C-alpha cells in the first residue's frame, strides 16, 4: 500500500500510473512510516469526531480499533528491533503485501469485549500480556492522548429512568461486568479509550489536593454530614465506588447537588 | 418473474434491459446539503415511493394509474405529499446538535384508506398518517365561508352542513412520536409482521415498541459494556423477520450477524444464531475490520435468506447456515488497493444499502461515480449501470458501465482513478412486485424500469 495519499478523482481523467505492487512487508522503515502516517490520520479523525457537533460512535469505534492495531504493530516493531534475541514475538498484524503469509492471529484473540456473554474470547496477547512491550515515551503519550480525546465520547446518560424506557425485568438486569483488576503494567493504555464518563466517576477530581486549595474559602457547611471527611472530599465517594459499573438505581438523593455542580463545571469548563 | 433474467446482458431472449423512466430533483450543480436524499422506500404495493432527505423532509410519490392512451407506458411517479418530518434540535445538557436528517422510512401495511409510515432521525421516531381529503363541509352555522366566526346573535336559522367535493388534498399528520428512548444514533427501524410492534436500533441498543404506546419501549438488546473502555463493536443495522414475528436480526461493525428469538427471554443478548465468515488471512490489512463492518442487513421476501452489505461486497446468507455466506458478490473490488486513501478521505465509512427484488432472484446495491450494481442470483450475471443526466432521455436504455482496473482501457471504460467519489449511491429501492427501481444519487431520485426485449 502506497504511503502517500492518492488524491481521489472527481471525474477528471488522468494517466494511469503503475502501482508498486505493494511494499515488502519485511522492510521496516517504510512500514513504520506508514504506521506513523496512519496514526496521525486516525488521531486527527478521532479528534475531529469529538469536536464535531455530531458524534459518531460507530466511526469512533472503528477508528479506535484501527488505532489499537496500529499501536500493537508499533509495539511489536519496537520490541523486535530492540530485543532481537528474545523469544519469538507473535506479530499482531501485518500489512498485506501478498508476499508474506504470516500465521494469522486467531480470530479469538481479536474479541476483547464479552459481547452478549456469548463470545468468551481471550484478549489479544499483544495488548494484555506485555512482557515484550517496550513503551517508549511516544507510545504511552499516544495512549493517554487517545484516552483523553475519546473520554467524553460516552454520552452522559440520565441516571433516572428515562421516559421512554420500560423498567427492566428482574431476571434480566443489564449484564454486569465485574471490575477486574488491571493486569496491564501501564497505568493507562489504549484499552481505556472509552472510559466511562458517568457522573459518579467525575467526583474523583474533588480528591485532588490542588483543587481543594481553590475552594478553601467557600463555605461547604451545607454539604457537611455527620461522618467526618477530609475537607473537599465528596462524602459519598465510598459508597459510589462500590457501585461503580452498575447501571441500576443509584442513591442520588444526597448527591444531587454535587452532580449538578460537576455537570455545570463540565459544561462551562 | 421466475425464469426471466433480471440482469441485462448481451444476447439472450429473456434478458432484461433497464431504461430511464424519470428523475426527480433539482438540476443545479450546486447541491444544497438539505436536499441530499438519505432514504428511499417503496410501500407494500409499490404504488407509493417515499424519500427522506437531510433537511428532515419526506416526499412521497404516487404512481399514476396506467392510462389506456399509453398502454406501453407504465405509470409515472408524481409528487403525492411533502411534509417536514423532523426539525433540528439541540440537546442543551449534552451540548449536542440533533440532526433532522431522516435516517430511515418504513411503511406500515395498509389497513384502511389512509397510509402510515414511520420516519426516524438520530433520536426520535414518528408515525405519520397520510390521508386524502376530497370533500369538505359547507354551510356551517357558526362560521362564514371564509372561516370568520359569525355573531351568534345574528343566527336565526340552523342548517345541516353539506359535504361537497373539493380538489384532492393530501394531508400528513403526526400520529405518534416515540422519543427519548435512544441515547445513541438510531440506525434502523423495522416493522414487525404482527403489525403491532416495531423495533428501533441505535449503536448499542435495540428497543421494541408498540405502535400505540409512545411513553415506553422494551429494551431487547443491550451491548453497552459496563466499562466503555471495553467497547469494540457496535450495532449497525437491525431488521425483523418478514414472517416470524418473534425473530429479528442485527449486524455489527465487526461483520457479524446475530439472529435472535424474542421468545427466549425479555432481553435478547443471547443470540439464537451467530453468522460470521472466517477472515481470509491473505487479505488482512489495517482496514480489514473497517471494511468488514456491515452497513445494511435485509431479509429476503421469503424469509429464507439474509443479505448483508459491507464496504466491498454483498453477501447472501442462508438463515440456517451460520458458518459462511451462501453467495458473495464483489461490488467494487478494485477499491481494495485504495483503502488507505479512502480511509483518509472518509469514504471508507460510507454506508451503502442493498435491496432484493420482489422474487428474491436479484439484488442491487450502489457504488461510486453514481454507479449501481445488480446481481442475478440464478444466472450469476452482474451489471453496472449509471444514474446520470446524460442517459436521462425518456425510455433510453441504460448502457452497462465498466471500470478498468489495469491494462489497456477500452473506449467506454472508466479507470479507477477517474471515479468521482463524491457521487455515491447509498440508497436504492426495488418495487416489491415489478421491475421498477428507485436510485438516489445525492439530491436526485432516478426511476428506472425494465423493457423486456
Automatic annotation (TrEMBL), chain B:
Keywords: Repeat, WD repeat
One Gene Ontology molecular-function label: protein phosphatase regulator activity
Keyword Repeat listed: yes
Domain of life: Eukaryota
Statement: the UniProt record of this protein carries the keyword Repeat: yes
One of the record's GO cellular component terms: protein phosphatase type 2A complex
Family assignment from sequence similarity: Belongs to the phosphatase 2A regulatory subunit B family.
Descriptive protein name: Serine/threonine-protein phosphatase 2A 55 kDa regulatory subunit B
Organism whose genome encodes this protein: Chiloscyllium punctatum
Amino acid at each position: 500500500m502506497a504511503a502517500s495519499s492518492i488524491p481521489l478523482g472527481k471525474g477528471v481523467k488522468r494517466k494511469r500510473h503503475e502501482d508498486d505492487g505493494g511494499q515488502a512487508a519485511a522492510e521496516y522503515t517504510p512500514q513504520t512510516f506508514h504506521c506513523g502516517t496512519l496514526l496521525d490520520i486516525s488521531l486527527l479523525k478521532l479528534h475531529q469526531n469529538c469536536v464535531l457537533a455530531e458524534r459518531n460512535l460507530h466511526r469512533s469505534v472503528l477508528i479506535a480499533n484501527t488505532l489499537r492495531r496500529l499501536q500493537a504493530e508499533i509495539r511489536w516493531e519496537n520490541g523486535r528491533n530492540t530485543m532481537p534475541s528474545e523469544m519469538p514475538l507473535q506479530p499482531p498484524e501485518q500489512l498485506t503485501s501478498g508476499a508474506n503469509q504470516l500465521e494469522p492471529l486467531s480470530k479469538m484473540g481479536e474479541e476483547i469485549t464479552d459481547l452478549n456473554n456469548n463470545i468468551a474470547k481471550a484478549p489479544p496477547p499483544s495488548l494484555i500480556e506485555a512482557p515484550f512491550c517496550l513503551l517508549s515515551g511516544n507510545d504511552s503519550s499516544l495512549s493517554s492522548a487517545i484516552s483523553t480525546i475519546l473520554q467524553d465520547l460516552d454520552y452522559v446518560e440520565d441516571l433516572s429512568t428515562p421516559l421512554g424506557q420500560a423498567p427492566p425485568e428482574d431476571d434480566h438486569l443489564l449484564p454486569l461486568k465485574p471490575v477486574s483488576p488491571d493486569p496491564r503494567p501501564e497505568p493507562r493504555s489504549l484499552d481505556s479509550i472509552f472510559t466511562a464518563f458517568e457522573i459518579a466517576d467525575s467526583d474523583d477530581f474533588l480528591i485532588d489536593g490542588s483543587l481543594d486549595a481553590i475552594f478553601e474559602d467557600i463555605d461547604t457547611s451545607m454539604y457537611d454530614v455527620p461522618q467526618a471527611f477530609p475537607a473537599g472530599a465528596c462524602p459519598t465517594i465510598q459508597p459510589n465506588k462500590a457501585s461503580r459499573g452498575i447501571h441500576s438505581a443509584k442513591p442520588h438523593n444526597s448527591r444531587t447537588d454535587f452532580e449538578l455542580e460537576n455537570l455545570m463545571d463540565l459544561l462551562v469548563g | 418473474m421466475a425464469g426471466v433474467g433480471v440482469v441485462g446482458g448481451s444476447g439472450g431472449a429473456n434478458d432484461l434491459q433497464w431504461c430511464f423512466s424519470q428523475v426527480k430533483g433539482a438540476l443545479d450543480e450546486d447541491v444544497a446539503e438539505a436536499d441530499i436524499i438519505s432514504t428511499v422506500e417503496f410501500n407494500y404495493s409499490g404504488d407509493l415511493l417515499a424519500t427522506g432527505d437531510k433537511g428532515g423532509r419526506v416526499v412521497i410519490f404516487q404512481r399514476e394509474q396506467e392510462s389506456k392512451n399509453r398502454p406501453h407506458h407504465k405509470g409515472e411517479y408524481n409528487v403525492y405529499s411533502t411534509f417536514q418530518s423532523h426539525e433540528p434540535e439541540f440537546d442543551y445538557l449534552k451540548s449536542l446538535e440533533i440532526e433532522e436528517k431522516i435516517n430511515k422510512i418504513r411503511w406500515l401495511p395498509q389497513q384502511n384508506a389512509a397510509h402510515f409510515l414511520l420516519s426516524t432521525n438520530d433520536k426520535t421516531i414518528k408515525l405519520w398518517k397520510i390521508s386524502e381529503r376530497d370533500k369538505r363541509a359547507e354551510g356551517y352555522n357558526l362560521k362564514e365561508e371564509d372561516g370568520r366566526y359569525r355573531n351568534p346573535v345574528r343566527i336565526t336559522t340552523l342548517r345541516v352542513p353539506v359535504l361537497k367535493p373539493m380538489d384532492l388534498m393530501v394531508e400528513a399528520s403526526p400520529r405518534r412520536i416515540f422519543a427519548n428512548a435512544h441515547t445513541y444514533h438510531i440506525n434502523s427501524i423495522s416493522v414487525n409482521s404482527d403489525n403491532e410492534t416495531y423495533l428501533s436500533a441505535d449503536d448499542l441498543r435495540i428497543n421494541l415498541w408498540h405502535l400505540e404506546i409512545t411513553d415506553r419501549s422494551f429494551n431487547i438488546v443491550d451491548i453497552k459494556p459496563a466499562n466503555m473502555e471495553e467497547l469494540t463493536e457496535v450495532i449497525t443495522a437491525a431488521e425483523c423477520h418478514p414472517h416470524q414475528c418473534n425473530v429479528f436480526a442485527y449486524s455489527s461493525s465487526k461483520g457479524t450477524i446475530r439472529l435472535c428469538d424474542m421468545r427466549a427471554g425479555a432481553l435478547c443478548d443471547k443470540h439464537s444464531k451467530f453468522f460470521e465468515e472466517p477472515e481470509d488471512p491473505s487479505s488482512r490489512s489495517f482496514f480489514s475490520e473497517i471494511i468488514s463492518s456491515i452497513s445494511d442487513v435485509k431479509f429476503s421476501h421469503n424469509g429464507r435468506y439474509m443479505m448483508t452489505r459491507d464496504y466491498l461486497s454483498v453477501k447472501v446468507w442462508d438463515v440456517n447456515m451460520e458458518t459462511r455466506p451462501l453467495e458473495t458478490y464483489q461490488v467494487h473490488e478494485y477499491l481494495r488497493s485504495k483503502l488507505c486513501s479512502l480511509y483518509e478521505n472518509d469514504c471508507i465509512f460510507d454506508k451503502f444499502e442493498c435491496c432484493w427484488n420482489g422474487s428474491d432472484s436479484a439484488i442491487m446495491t450502489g457504488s461510486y461515480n453514481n454507479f449501481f450494481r445488480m446481481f442475478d442470483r440464478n444466472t450469476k450475471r452482474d451489471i453496472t449501470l449509471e444514474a446520470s443526466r446524460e442517459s436521462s432521455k425518456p425510455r433510453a436504455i441504460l448502457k452497462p458501465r465498466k471500470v478498468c482496473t489495469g491494462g489497456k482501457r477500452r473506449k467506454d471504460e472508466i479507470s479507477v482513478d477517474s471515479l468521482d467519489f463524491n457521487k455515491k449511491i447509498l440508497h436504492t429501492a426495488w418495487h416489491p412486485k415489478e421491475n421498477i427501481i428507485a436510485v438516489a444519487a445525492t439530491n436526485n431520485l432516478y426511476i428506472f424500469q425494465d423493457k423486456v426485449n
